[in-house]
Amino acid sequence: MEVVLPTARRRPSRGEAEGGSYVGCTGARRLAALVCSLQILLLAPIVNLLRTFSAEADERTVGSSLPVRGAKRVLLVIDQARVEASLLSAYVGLLATLAQSCHGRLVILLTGSPGRHGLSVRAQLGSFPPEGVDLSTVRWRVLPVTRHVYDSSEAAALSFRTYEWLADQQLGYDIIAFHSSGGAAYYPLLGRGQGLGLQSSRIVLLMPQALREAWLQGRSAGASMDELEQDHMQRSAAFMADVVVTSSSTYRFIHEDGWKLASQILIFDDLQLDEQQLPLAGAGGSLPFDVSAAFSMWSASQLPLHQLSSASPPPPRRPHGARTYARPASARGDSGSGDASEGDAAVMVTVCVVHHERGALLLQALESVRRQTLPPEEIQVIVVDDGSTSAQALATLSHVAAWPEFVSGKWQLLLRPARYLGASRNEAARHAQGEFLFFLDDDNCLKPHALETLLHAAHASGAQILTSPNEKWPSAEPPPLSHKSTERWLPLGAAAAVGVFKNCFGDANALVRRNAFITLRGFTEDPNVGHEDWELWARAVLQGYTLQVIPLPIYWYRLGQGGMLSQSLGATQIAQVQLHANHARNIRPYLQRLAGWPEAQDLLRLAQGMYYKK
User: Fold this and answer.
1) What is the pLDDT of residues 337-380, one digit of tens each?
2) Which residues form the Glycosyltransferase 2-like domain (predicted)?
3) Distance in angstroms (rounded) separating the CA atoms of residues 450 and 70
4) Distance between CA atoms of 376 and 323, rounded to whole angstroms?
């Protein structure tokens, strides 16, 4: 990790800044002069970042193989709902710097709605246009309204939708700059690290403050669930980004807090305002941003820019794995799939399916495996029947046993007494031959690209566990390849603190390296209790295994068809009896981590109980 610090230099006085342009101005004109004086100072490192990457960028192609020579494509992503008023002037400076460097080839993507102050970023730029910049050359984009419903926090949904928008673009971007509040860069960075797009983009995180500073430094009474989620997204983005631009005080905080950080950190000093700089708004007026926060960025111009110009680009990402995609859209369910690279080694995945009394749905699940874009020779299926006794289920099992895949022995059907999900999934894993395991519920269906995408992402990222969003399907009929309006469940990933209260990790329909599954000793085998997947993924995260979410919904999650819990106990009993048993199961890894500290264990139980009884 390279940390670039500012050189010692005196801050300009009021009269010296912009040749004394503050003198004799009205409040509004003084504000405009201030913005103009800051426009180059605020984020000058971005200019040098472009220079650093220019040699490499001139030799590569972007998107549809259009050459990038001279003009650079730059995207600035601004979440209007979460942008602090104090940062609006910073975006003016960023706009001027980037526009000058990329010869007008700048796109600004606005997500969310204007915040509580009602200050539109575009309106702010129009009120105080940067000197020497023609705003008419800027291309404005607004994140399209989605027809999907997301079962997630608003911040997570916006980040996911931003990734989808980026993946749909025909042309790529050399530089993508994200305002970090809310963690907007989180899913795009996950996708890039998994080889699912944005490989040609350098991603910059603008992080003037860490979200967790407030509550860890005693300025806030605890944290909300949304804040915990956004904190995880911000910390993860700071690790995955190529460059983080932050203040020296925030850098000290995140360093002491133990963050893993990007390969390049650009630091600007925190400075205090003097009395001459306070009355810029005029008598009785107020600025549309926090002046002290704006001036804390003053010394960005003092960075040793020659160090950036000569710095090596961040190390290359891990090469992709067995198979690739021509472009991310193919991985999102559009027609076509990527070609396999010559010489790639075959990777076998074992699909583990537990069945109980749902023969018709089992047929759909197995047919979805048959339709995978991954070559059939790379797929093994183990079906474990968990004590089905109905004539319909037994007839279905006899039917599939005659399929060529089962007759050949490549796929296996195991008839076992009812022991419930954890035990039956472990039984399937014991017969697996693949390097990877994928657990598929008997009532769900894979999209055709699912296994190929997961294996590609596993090799590109090195993750030991990959979960994914799903799209919910309320019918017993086979789901379509895609649907323009669905409800999507969007897991967050390895946010251990959030995982105490809700399953942020992902469900059992996930890919896991077989050696990791064996080391973790698989699922626990409690009968008639759910949340075995939540418990396993929590245990894996707490033990340091890498769990990631791929930002693509790769399977259909069936609703309303009666899972094992509803068949064995009844829906009313689940709500009244099983709820506490389920949640007692999923916090066991946390209680085990706190072994020997009973007071902390009781506090954890109290926090969980208060959350569910609120």
Assistant:
1) 334 343 344 558 999 999 999 999 999 999 999 999 999 999 99
2) 350-466
3) 39
4) 14
Beta-carbon contacts of residue 71 (< 8 Å; ≥ 6 apart): 102, 103, 104, 105
Q: Which residues pair with 465 in a beta bridge?
A: 512, 547
Q: Which of the residues in the chain have pLDDT under 50?
A: 6-43, 50-51, 54-69, 270-345, 564-569
Residue 72 near residue 105, CB atoms below 8 Å: yes
* pLDDT at position 9: 41
If you ran DSSP here, which 8-state letter would residue 575 be given?
Answer: I
Q: Residue 170: its pLDDT value, please?
A: 78
Residue 62: strand pairing partners: 66
What pLDDT does 391 receive? 96
Q: Specify whether the CB–CB gap between 564 and 420 falls below 8 A.
A: yes
Burial-class residue 67 by CB neighbours within 10 Å (0-12, 13-18, 19+): exposed
Kindly list the distances between the CA atom of residue 427 and the CA atoms of 229, 407, 528, 586, in Å, as whole numbers in the listed order.
35, 20, 17, 21
Query: H or E segment at 558?
Result: strand 555-558
pLDDT in tens, 36-53: 444 434 445 555 554 455
- Which candidate, 478, 421, 436, places its Cα nearest to that of 351? 436
Q: What is the DSSP string of 407-466?
A: HTTSSEEEEE----HHHHHHHHHHT--SSEEEEEETT-EE-TTHHHHHHHHHHHH--SEE
Rounded Cα gap, residues 325 and 71, in angstroms? 27
Question: Would residue 235 be called left, alpha or beta, if left means φ above 0 and alpha means ψ between -120 and 50 degrees?
Answer: alpha
Query: Does residue 582 sit in helix, strand or coil?
Result: helix
Coil vs helix vs strand at 7: coil
Helix (H) or strand (E) holding 350: strand 349-355
Domains of the chain (ranges, CATH numbers): 26-310 (3.40.50.2000), 347-608 (3.90.550.10)
In what side-by-side order are the strands of the sheet with 436-441?
412-416, 379-386, 349-355, 436-441, 511-513, 465-467, 547-549
- β pairing state of 264-268 and 511-513: unpaired
CA gap 454, 510 in Å, rounded: 9
Coil vs helix vs strand at 508? coil
**pLDDT at position 580, please?**
82
